[in-house]
Amino acid sequence: MTDFNYTAKNFKSENEVRWCPGCGDYAIMNSVQRTMAEMNIPHEKFAVISGIGCSSRFPYYMSTFGFHTIHGRATAIASGVKTANPDLNVWVITGDGDSLAIGGNHFIHLVRRNIDVNLVLFNNKIYGLTKGQYSPTSARGVVTKTSPFGTVEDPFVPGQLVLGASGNFFARAVDSNVKHTQQVLKEAAQHAGTSVVEVLQNCVIFNDGIHEEIADPKFRNERQLFLEHGKPMVFGNEKDKGLVFDKGRLKVVKIGEDGYTLDDILVHDAKTSDPTLHLALINMALPDFPVAMGVIRSVEALVYDQEVTRQINEVQATRKISKVDELLRSGNTWEVNEPTSSDPVPFFKKRCTLAQE
Amino acid sequence: MKDAKVIELEEVAIRFSGDSGDGMQLTGTLFSDASALFGNDISTFPDYPSEIRAPQGTVGGVSGFQVQFGKKQVNTPGDYAHVLIAMNPAAVKANATFMNPGGTIIFDADSFTQKNLDKANFKTDDPFTECNLVDYAKIAVPITSMTRESLKDYGLDNKSVLRSKNMFALGLVCWMFGRPLDYIEGYIKKKFAKKPLVVETNLKVLHDGYNYGMNMQHMTPRYMVHAAAIERGIYRNINGNQATAWGFLAAAEKSGLNLFQGSYPITPATDILSALAERKDLGVKTFQAEDEIAGICTAIGAAFAGDLAITTTSGPGLALKAEALGLSVMTELPLVVVNVQRGGPSTGLPTKTEQSDLLQTLYGRNGESPVVVIAASTPSDCFYYAFLAAKIAVERMVPVVLLTDGFLGNGSEPWRVPSMDELPEIKPRIAKNKDTYKPYKRDEETLAREWAIPGMDGFQHRVGGLEKNIDGAVSHDPENHQRLTEQRAEKVERVADMLPQLDVCGDESGDLLVVSWGGTYGHTLSAVRELKEEGKSVSLAHFNFIKPLPKNTEEVFSRFKKIVVCELNMGQFSAYLRDKLPGFTYNQVNKVKGLPFTVLELKQNFNKLLED
Description:
The complex is a heterodimer.
Chain A: H1 25-38, E1 46-50, E2 65-68, H2 74-84, E3 89-95, H3 96-102, H4 104-113, E4 117-123, E5 126-127, E6 133-134, H5 158-164, E7 169-174, H6 178-190, E8 195-200, H7 212-215, H8 220-223, E9 224-227, E10 234-235, E11 241-246, E12 249-254, H9 276-283, E13 291-298, H10 304-317, H11 324-328, E14 333-336
Parallel strand pairs in A: 1-2, 1-3, 3-4, 4-8, 7-8, 9-13
Antiparallel strand pairs in A: 5-6, 7-13, 10-11, 11-12
Chain B: E1 6-8, E2 11-19, H1 24-38, E3 41-47, E4 62-70, E5 81-86, H2 89-95, E6 99-108, H3 114-119, H4 127-130, E7 137-141, H5 143-150, H6 158-163, H7 165-176, H8 182-191, H9 196-215, E8 222-224, E9 233-239, H10 240-255, E10 259-263, H11 270-277, E11 285-288, H12 292-304, E12 308-313, H13 315-331, E13 335-341, H14 358-363, E14 372-375, H15 382-396, E15 399-405, H16 406-410, E16 412-416, E17 462-464, H17 478-493, E18 504-505, E19 510-517, H18 521-533, E20 538-543, E21 545-547, H19 553-557, E22 560-567, H20 572-580, E23 586-590, H21 599-611
Parallel strand pairs in B: 1-8, 2-5, 5-6, 6-7, 10-11, 10-12, 12-13, 13-15, 14-15, 19-20, 19-22, 22-23
Antiparallel strand pairs in B: 2-4, 3-4, 9-16, 14-21, 18-20
Helix pairs in contact in B: 1-7, 5-9, 7-9, 10-11, 10-15, 12-13, 18-21
């Protein structure tokens, strides 16, 4: 295997980055570029596809092949790119409005088909590019320019949609935690099939601090549960809290209290296809629970683009028709060759014969 | 042969009609194929309701299939049928207005019960008089009871027996028109290879129907239609949707590109998707998308990734694709969109034909958004126009919309299959030099940009819906936007350089020029031919290229005293011509009944214009 010795710099374009100062997007792009550099894949094999929204300017800042598409459709366009050429390493950059509102249909169908793309969902729970309207992940009651009296609708939880669409990979990270984001993105990139990484992103202008209760490094250990496959679900500054399954529900316990020991704590199994516990982890919310971070679900399953290729190869292995000329002459045909027959004229040279009749 | 009345005809139209569950489409198709094999030129027109199984016996549930065949070139399925096969009273009612005066009606006498007359809303017990069909040869054949008799030894249930009725009718018609049964027999044996009983019973009924005609020939007229004098070669029957699909296969092979189709099922375009889904042997990737938007978006993605990319739809679907079509205009990626037009607006008449999406195709997008628009004119030439649409798209880096319609898509005709050598080369504009490559650098002559595909080292670049400068960076520069808007329009206009000139059918100048476009060709050509035979000064200019128009269009128009534009909408092409070539008076013949023109109504309109 060739070692390309890329660094993050190899993935930065010459275009000036125009996100607002302090925007969480900078950190996420940093993580993506570092992840790509470490993947040891030729630079020209990367394609970064985005929709519309602040985050979707992303491809312009990358030096890879890029496609800044239209609102909500990045997932559909990326589906076409990857199906057409499964050799490419395809990334979708999208936001909560782009992929869960206007592009909701394409999002769930991408996940359902399990096309091998890496989707990074920047969730800031607000529309930034149109200057501050509520999004499908905004909490009920939130006051924005288009909900001056508060919204009267419940939000989507992205992970629920992924599981609801029979998704096989879902992870969560915080924009400012570059090291962890990078680790999660690496696992997402290695996963064959659609991988969805929800990054809790801070919009410094229109929704500043929306994730602070979770994301602030001060509370990180107490309020975030960093999941790793095969490791116990422990958290807390002293690593003294953990999750157990009790009467059909998750429960936070303190190790060493009420008779709980480390052995009682659930061990994370991201690879089980049973989504029950994964859903419970996705649903965990403050204040009763820490918020689950890291790779929550990573299940091996048949991959759409590979299956398309396999099917073609299988059919071609025993094909009777390998050229269009053969196809045109297959099935019910007959020959006309009468004394009265005229010589054939190629179609594009044909002229109307009415004048001579 | 005792005393069968033999009628010799140049061409004859037959209409098979019955309940949508009676198997009339299959009967019609088998008869058409047998006629084509016999050496007749044919043209067919299936006419079926949009409900899959509308209530039995009602007029709304009638499914019809018309075929015209003849000993010379047949351009239309025929305005009016010489022979109607009616499986029930509703079929008589539904087709009464489509009958040729003095024609023959063969009907299943067993189905003319009070119950069925009521279902078809007949007021009296004489449906023929009620439908003004007095002066027609009416042949009552007890099709149901004969079929039952024919199958009495097989122990079949009633439903299976009734399902074979169409074979009896088919056998009878084959006798009337002197069609050998071997092709149909072969078809049945192949189709039901795993059900020997079905093969046996169908063949039995088919032969009994044929023999019935022979035995009852004193009452059944016999028609003779000799084989047509046509080009020598290998022929097959093909409908427009299949021809469209195969045209893209040919283009993919010629261009050396892989074919990708992203589509969502929609009547009457779905058959293109199924035809290509079958062709994994030729490496086609078909993507049945979650909606129309994803259909075109996956195709745009595949075009970005270097495939020959197409999406297929019908009117409402094109409306949904509008925004994404604009994206392919902006990114200048090659894409072919096929619109198999149907009656609109909204859901409209899904199974009926119309040409009312022309203005939507030309203008139905935000911004200055020019695309190439071409139209096929017969079921079989859909093959060539699909091929050409693909050639234009990948050589000129531009989206192309190919307009066909339900009449072309479902209609079929015999087709001399070309060899691939007969088709022109296709040379995709793949970028070659990475040192000089710029995403929006253009060829001086064609204004086409180059196609650099992910995976090509050194060609990394970005495209997108935002206006760009030559390097592919976002640009809000006013001068740049003005220039690129003009270049995108000019690029489309320059496609005319690779297109043939407008061909005039008939005299090069004269009193009346009939102008038509797309799927009305067979009818306008037939009308013009018949008027010419009557000595009238009429010619036809039929358009396959709408945008850009052929370069000699204005010059052709100037050679005629009057121009009449015929189209199955309320005047969309004539409005476009008034805009593009304002110096002429455009008379119009328009029709929106979900049906093709009739040659008769066209001739009446033309005669009126000639007299004025």
